[in-house]
């Protein structure tokens, strides 16, 4: 007896149905295009003429009411997925839902519950799972390669994608009467790109390596181009890097690399309609590659779906659990971008969130607000970074490698690391891209970039040169991966901008500094960046009170504070540093955009700086206060030589670990008045 075909109805006759699902169902060996449904009558009629289903419906409920219909392909706007899938399940129909499964964690959870209650098959349309090369790579990974040591995956949409598609696809049929939600979904690009494109990327990662437990992510934007670099932690202990670029100045490509104990796999795939993917597995000195002559993944996913429904075959496609996990991952990535923190997938809810534009540094209230004890942040290892110039190397690539080998994924950058002067006269767009791409490739985030010059140099011509070079760096900062540009307020010493001078305390010096800062603020506003100034005893702004005065005078949210306790302590503070540190955070806590971590040694009236852990800085108080900041804030180790890095990092990490283990100091802080007199 010949087995019957699965009778499928396709909901939605728009672009993805025309380009993929209608042909896929018609060509599948075990499926029938039984019905189609669309609210636009002209579009529905044209698709009926082309594809000849048995039935064409303008009413979804009528299609679902047909007892002969077995399953539904949902190929409509993402925002309709949950509601329409729920209706199909209630009508007893199996489902193949275009990715993403839905647009929020809660919608996916509700669909999971409905699926379990109905006892039906729900498959998410992650079609790459059905490429023969992907499937052979999965077999090789499970059976031959041994433990995974490293994993990376990418999804690069192309600026030329639609030119290719327009030339190769049939002319699309469109309708003015198509039903769309009121909100223009694609205009919020960060959300649209994550849901539409990163859903493929995360599913590929999960297909090969299993569940993802946590993510960190950086989002960069250049014109209408967006990129995400994602550090993913998997349940099996592997740390992987995922990269999404939409659109890329390159050909379209999805791909992955996996390195294991006994072999490796490299796979790349162009647009799925036109060319086969190329996947090669390497073991014992030999490559093997599946031809994949049947690479129509949309058809193959329909065939697998039908086998599961008709014959009870194991589900090869993404399940409702996979769909939920992917949406959780997308929501977690969006939260990681906004917070700058590692985000666990099991802790997120809601939809993908979108960061406010230029949301890089905290807002500017006048005093530190106490944080409730339960909300005090711990300082995790991912927020502890290093001054990149600590590793002098002949090339940027070697510098980035040294940073990562030292255990850091966060840097305070200096253009000297890219082979230029710290304050160059010119930075090309190519150099900026190289900096960004090199750091991204190594999984390094840029917390800020140095643009330090003597703002009140005795020679006004020197000040003008410094401001001009500041603009050079500021104009490329965002392209390199940061919106925070750091500088100092200067000294009257003509030879050393880190050496104090008797004239720094004069009204004239303050006026010159104020005028220079106003010009710097104008540059920051023009370039859309923030300025980070560091109070230090050798400069005009030599204390927390002076910094507060400057912020109050400038009245701008473009100026933030770099907190380095070693730079504000004087010999009189040696016995008890806590009052000076508390004053700093009371006056400036809500303005701090970065912390520095070095140490200090007092010898009579002499104050000497040294690596963290080798002096007498009260790190317990410093990190207690730092953990109280309302926004996630980088903590950068600096002021040391390369051979001193390991010990300094261990010291800062151990002190931070103590903060994570005790809340007693937090109780004392939040019980005290917010402003001290």
UniProtKB/TrEMBL annotation:
GFO/IDH/MocA-like oxidoreductase domain location is 181-266
Instruction: Please report the organism this UniProt entry assigns to the protein.
Output: Streptomyces polyasparticus
Kindly provide the name given to this protein in its UniProt entry.
TIM barrel protein
Q: List, for all copies, the residue spans of the domain called Xylose isomerase-like TIM barrel.
A: 402-634
The residue ranges of the Gfo/Idh/MocA-like oxidoreductase N-terminal domain are: 6-125
Any one Pfam family here would be GFO_IDH_MocA
Note the InterPro entries from the entry: Gfo/Idh/MocA-like_OxRdtase_N, Gfo/Idh/MocA_oxidoreduct, GFO_IDH_MocA-like_dom, NAD(P)-bd_dom_sf, Xyl_isomerase-like_sf, Xyl_isomerase-like_TIM-brl
Please give the PANTHER family that the UniProt record associates with this protein: CONSERVED EXPRESSED OXIDOREDUCTASE (EUROFUNG) (PTHR43708), OXIDOREDUCTASE (PTHR43708:SF8)
- Origin organism lineage: Bacteria, Bacillati, Actinomycetota, Actinomycetes, Kitasatosporales
Q: Which residues form a coiled coil?
A: none
